[in-house]
Amino acid sequence: IGQAKTGTGKTLGFGIPVLEDVIAPDEEGYEDLLNPNKPQALIILPTRELTKQVAQDLREAAKYLSTRIVEIYGGVAFEPQIEALTRGADIVVGTPGRLIDLLRKGHLHLSGVETVVLDEADEMLDLGFLPDVETLLARVPENRHTMLFSATMPGPVVALARRFMVHPTHIRAQDPDDQNQTVNTVKQVIYRVHAMNKVEVISRILQARGRGRTVIFCRTKRTAARLGEDLSARGFAVGALHGDLGQGAREQALRAFRNGKVDVLVATDVAARGIDVDDVTHVINYQCPEDEKIYIHRIGRTGRAGHSGTAITFVDWDDTPRWSLISKALGLGVPEPLETYHTSPHLFTDLDIPEGTTGRLPRAKRTRAGLDAEVLEDLGGSSPRSEGRGRGGRSGSRSGSRGGRGRGGRGRSARGSSTSSSDASRSRGSRRGSQ
């Protein structure tokens, strides 16, 4: 069980040992495998985007190896994935639903798997994927090496994890002088903002000096789509990432964000889980997170790998009790956020927003190509299911919208430091049989 703060190298923490353990087709001993051409390692992740990202990271690490890495996720056509498995796969990276679909159809064979990785383990085990995970683990040999990684590993999740592992070692990577759960490179600012004033406040935050790529988190798909439209109508280059978008639209938004064609990504929690994009300077919680674990995962999108970042959280009146619990659990010391409006002087000073900034981006500063400049691929395939396997359609973050009506919110600023993520690795160890 590996646990560490966000942005500390979790993917390669398990990826390098997996690559070292797997025998590639051109390596000695490959022909002696009981199941050559079948997967030797299975990496299970909660979302499609995270699956693609981890697979890409592994390919980068294995660019001088002949190891075959196949990614399996829903929302796209089955045929290319079936063809890839038929050609041969050494490492399979995938989401539970599509993995089970291919397993039941006889296209995915797990009898040769010697290493299993559950990434974002608290999400996989704590938020509804446990039956799928159990189904997959029941089909891999008992004699295996099992690794679980996540930013947070509460007691109940650890207890569940122990059901799948024999005498697991819990490795926690932490600076002995840093006892906080949140990353100390992240400046945390908390405001109480009226719902009708949030778009006005965000429109000014997005014009702060030094702001780079920004991720805005919403609780619901509808809120994410509406906010994307509102900000787009105000001149900002925005992409959306949520479950009502088809896989092609989600990948289009992520590519545009990574390539700089848009610099604002509005996302729901599950869709953005684990997404690692360089140079995210700001994270904005448009709505208060459900609990401290989600808060940690959200703000962990910035301040990664030693870089600094800013996390701003909006707290509605009704969410004040929930926020108080989060603040207490993380030791932030901000139980009562300061009331903040788009005209509040402290908003401008806290976040270095130029005086006189309005709620619309000046035309002279609208220099990014925008979401439409990124190709929208037709990936075919099914409509999404609950894990991240697509859902057809393409609800967007484009133009059209309702500009920010609103008056005042309230807010307060607070600076917390530190954020948590998962990152622990378990090096190689014995290849067969160590669990």
How many extended strands? 14
H/E topology pattern: EHEHEHEHEHHEHEEHEHEHEHEHEHEH
As a percent range, the share of helical residues equals 25-40%
Give the CATH H-level superfamily of the largest domain.
P-loop containing nucleotide triphosphate hydrolases
The tally of domains stands at 2
> Roughly what fraction of the amino acids lie in strands?
15-25%
Instruction: From the 3D structure, determine the CATH topology of the largest domain.
Output: Rossmann fold
Total count of helical runs of at least 4 residues: 14
Largest sheet: 7 strands, parallel
Mean pLDDT reading? 83
What is the rounded Rg?
22 Å
Q: Taking strands numbered 1, 2, ... along the chain, how are they ordered across the largest sheet?
A: 3-4-2-5-6-1-7
Span from first to last CA? 11 Å
Show unreliable segments: 382-435
Structure overview:
The longest helix has 14 residues, at 48-61. It contains 14 helices and 14 strands. It has helices spanning 10-21, 48-61, 78-87, 96-104, 121-126, 130-137, 155-163, 198-205, 221-233, 247-259, 269-272, 292-299, 320-330, 345-351, and strands at residues 2-4, 41-44, 69-72, 91-94, 115-119, 145-150, 171-173, 186-192, 213-218, 238-241, 264-268, 280-285, 309-315, 338-339. Helix content is 30%, strand content 15%. The strands form two sheets. It has a seven-stranded parallel beta sheet, with helices on both faces. The protein has 435 residues and is an alpha/beta fold. It has two domains: 2-173, Rossmann fold; 186-373, P-loop containing nucleotide triphosphate hydrolases (Rossmann fold), CATH 3.40.50.300. Residues 382-435 have low confidence and may be disordered.
